[in-house]
Structure formats: C-alpha cells, structure tokens
Design brief:
2 copies of one chain form a homodimer. Helix content of chain A is 29%, strand content 28%. Chain A is an alpha+beta fold. In chain A, a hairpin with a 2-residue loop joins strand 1 and strand 2. The structure holds a DNA duplex.
Chain lengths: 249, 249
DNA sequence: GCAAAAGTGTTGGGCCTACACCCATGA
DNA sequence: TCATGGGTGTAGGCCCAACACTTTTGC
C-alpha cells in the first residue's frame, strides 16, 4: 500500500490520506494463491495497493490497480472493509525499512485504506510489479510470508469475507478457466474453505444448483482416469446470484 | 451527512473529503424505525452523519456520532460499505437547497462516505438534532420520506447488510429491551425481514438455539392473554456469534 | 498389471415447513 | 361474554451427511 504520492500518479490530483489495498486471489496447483509485491531492494512483502484519484470512483481505482498488476480488466471485485484505526501499524519502523525507496518525509501522518478482494483466473494473469517493487508473485495461501503494514489483518478479513460469500452464493466463475473438471472445482472450494469436502455430496449439490453444465469432452493427457469437463452456465449462475440462493457446502 | 467543516468540529483537524453516515435502527410499535435529521428551516431529511478527526479511528467517529444523536454509548455497530462514486448526487442542487445553512463555497468538491449501521434500544434513545438540523426523529421504515444526497442508496444497502447478518447470526440483543416477549422478538424479525413468520416455528428455533431463557414472569397489563417474558442468555449468545452458527428464519 | 485419481447411490436422521385450535386476559 | 392475541404439537418431506467400491488411464 502506497501511502505517499507515487511516481505513477505524480501530477494527478489524489484524495489525501485515502488508499486502497487489493487481495487478489487465484487458484492453481490445487491451492489458493495470493498476489504479493516485494519492495525494491528488500525482502519485504505487501499487498498491491494504490491511491485514489479525484476523478475516479473507488471501484474504478480498484479496477485500475488490478489491471496494472495482473493485466486483467474483467474482474470479480468486492469491497469488503475500510481500515481506519489511528495507528494501523508501526509507522516509524516502516519508514526506516523503506527509507531507500520512499523519502520518510513523504508519508502521510495517517492513511485510511479501503480493502478490495478480487478473484481471477490464474492462467490469464501476467503479474507486473509497480515502481516501488521489484517482484510481483503468486504466493500459496498457506506459505504467505510476514507482510508489511497491517496487511496480515487485511488479508485475514478478506479471506473471512470470501468464505462468507462462498457460503451463500455461487463463486468460482472467475477463479476457474473456461473449462474445468469437477475435482478442480471441488479443490477450489476446499482451498478457500480450508477443509475437505465429500466428492459425491459436492457433485450432487453443484449439479442440482444448475450453475454448471457437463460437456461431451473429457480432459485427456492426465494420468489415471480422464475426468469430464464442465463449464459454467452463465445465465443460471446469474439467476442463482440474484435469488441469493443459499449454497452451503 | 456533513461534507463541510461543521461548527462542532471547528478548529479540530479533520480527515479531508472523508465523512461517515449512520443508519440507526430501532424497534417500536412492531415496526422497524430509523433515526433521521431535518435540516434547519427546511423540510429536507437525511441520515445522521459526521466527519472524522485526525485523532480518532473510524469506529470511534461512528460511536461519537451515535452518542451525539442518541445519548447511547454502548451500541451495536457495523461498518457495512464505503460509498465513493465521483458524483454521488447532484451537488449543485444540494448546495442551493441548503445555502441558508451552509455556505456553498465550503462544500468539498467530492466526499467519500463510510457507512455504519447501528441497532439500538428504542426506549433508551433521546434523539438529539445537530447544529445543522432542527429535528431528530424516528421514522417508520415503510414511511421514510425522500432523503437528501445518496442516502436512499445508503439506507438500502444498510438494510440488505442487516438482513444478511440476521440470516446467519443472532441479532436483537441490542434492539430489544432487557425483558421482552416472544411475540416482540418475532415481530422484530418480521420488521427487519419484511415478511411474516410462523410463530410456532420461530419459537422452536429460537429456544433450540439457546440464546434466550424464559423467565418466571409474564407481562401484565396488556389486553388478552399475558405473554411470558424472556431475556437473552448473553454467554450463549456470544457463543453462537463466534460459532457463526447458522440461523435462518 | 499396477498405482492413482475419477466417478457414482443409498440410507438415516435431523431440520424445516405447514398447519389449527384452545386459553387467558382486559374491556 | 366477547374480542384479541398468546401459546402450543405433529407429521411429511427435503436436504444433508456419512460412507466404499468400481472404473479408467498412463506408466
């Protein structure tokens, strides 16, 4: 999270003391992944973030940040919380650690940050560092390093919100590729919820809801039995979303 | 929602362009009520709101606003959304309508507002207008007048969030008085959800959850059969909250 | 042929829904 | 005594959870 005027926004009018942070979720290798930035010349990691211009809405700012970091612009995005404690973290320590990147005098005395999370198709993302970082990398949820600022708290809350949303809405259209297998989808749910699911019950439930349709193809080239492919039925998916159709797994 | 430096905060350092709006829910006469302010010398209504001081957290600011309007300081409070479109409403029109109260030159060109909702015990509230309004009054949810700014949208979203929360958590400890009857509680649920509930099923469900205990008293002085009184079992209530115990009605 | 993952059905229990009549009280 | 709202039980269905073996494929 940038809490200073960054190079990319130089000369543009910004909303003072207001920033945003994005928790970008992807799914790969049967694990939930999160996109993190490594600060230049350090081994310090944080969530991607940005500032808000006077001429863009909060949602537009979040979309811009996501586009910059991932190359994707059609994105599932949710604002989940605004973080506004007076002392969100130890600023002095951060200023020292990042003094070689940002002049300590440029930090706001206080910043409020709006938290967004996004679900993206891992395969379509081209991670792209910003001017203050020299790496933008996917991290497995269970291997996340220590994060700067209050980003562990933000991540925690994003994950809780995602799990809640998953509990009463279909999710996944944005996390999975166009065609996917039922075990893929199930492992996505397992990764998000952090628990094992019974494959028979899962399949019944998903098929009953009608949000996916079975294709007349199987996935070839994988070892063992070839799994069927499915795709989302977008119309039905939207319907279930609108109904607020309960959807506990 | 104040979008200018108001008298009450004169001389205090504020976070620029950031405000907060509160949807304060109460329950009375079997109806869900909302606290609204009438702007001085007008018949224009809006939600109570305020600004955020540099030395207070967002939550503290919300608590301060609630305390000022209701006199209550132990309050059930939820941050539910941050509203940040570039043009949240027709500013020119608002500036004209309120020109006699606020110098049009003092308005921010744009303000972002953090939405909170609160559940309070109607009986304990002493509604108290702020410096810019001459009335602070409860309104029945189904009789709400047109609201200024984008406050109808904010109210709408607050209600959706409240209903969602009601669906998977116990609620009501803060809306009902110390002792209440089962029909009271049921009508509170009906008022929030906007639909009829079967009294037998409701009672079973609530008693099963263990969040209330039956007292050895009945409510006297009401016409017709005397209903039993109940009170919340706070310990069990907190437990169910933590479990995230599902709680659909 | 063997190892690994995919695919698939049934049963029991609990929970939710639907539904109607009697009772106590104040007026 | 009457009108009004409070209090209460049961039966059916649906959904959910638990559970294990066969099939297919690549190696």
């Amino acid at each position: 999270m940038l809490e200073t005027t960054s190079k990319e926004s130089e000369g543009l009018e910004l909303i003072p003391q207001l920033t945003l942070d994005c928790v970008i979720f992807g799914f790969h290798d049967n694990a939930l992944k999160i996109l993190l930035l490594k600060w230049k010349g350090t081994d310090l990691w944080s969530l991607p973030g940005g500032v808000i211009r006077q001429d863009e809405s909060l949602d537009e700012a979040a979309i811009r940040v996501l586009k910059e970091r991932t190359g994707i612009d059609k994105i599932f995005l949710r604002q989940f919380h605004t973080f506004g404690k007076v002392q969100r973290y130890d600023k002095t320590s951060i200023q020292e650690q990042l003094a070689h990147v940002i002049d300590p005098k440029l930090w706001y005395k206080r910043a409020i940050s709006i938290g967004y999370y996004a679900l993206v198709d891992y395969e379509e993302v081209f991670p792209n560092p910003d001017q203050l970082s020299d790496e933008c990398t996917w991290w497995d949820l269970v291997e996340i390093p220590k994060l700067l600022f209050d980003h562990e708290e933000i991540l925690e809350k994003a994950l809780r919100s995602l799990r809640l949303e998953l509990s009463f809405q279909p999710i996944g259209l944005n996390l999975l590729p166009e065609k996917f297998t039922m075990p893929d989808m199930m492992r996505m749910y397992e990764a998000i919820l952090g628990k094992k699911i019974d494959p028979r019950n899962f399949q019944k439930k998903i098929l009953n809801s009608g949000i996916v349709v079975k294709l007349k193809e199987v996935k070839r080239g994988v070892a063992h039995k070839s799994p069927f492919l499915y795709k989302f039925d977008r119309k039905r998916y939207e319907e279930v979303l609108k109904e607020g159709g309960l959807f506990f797994i």
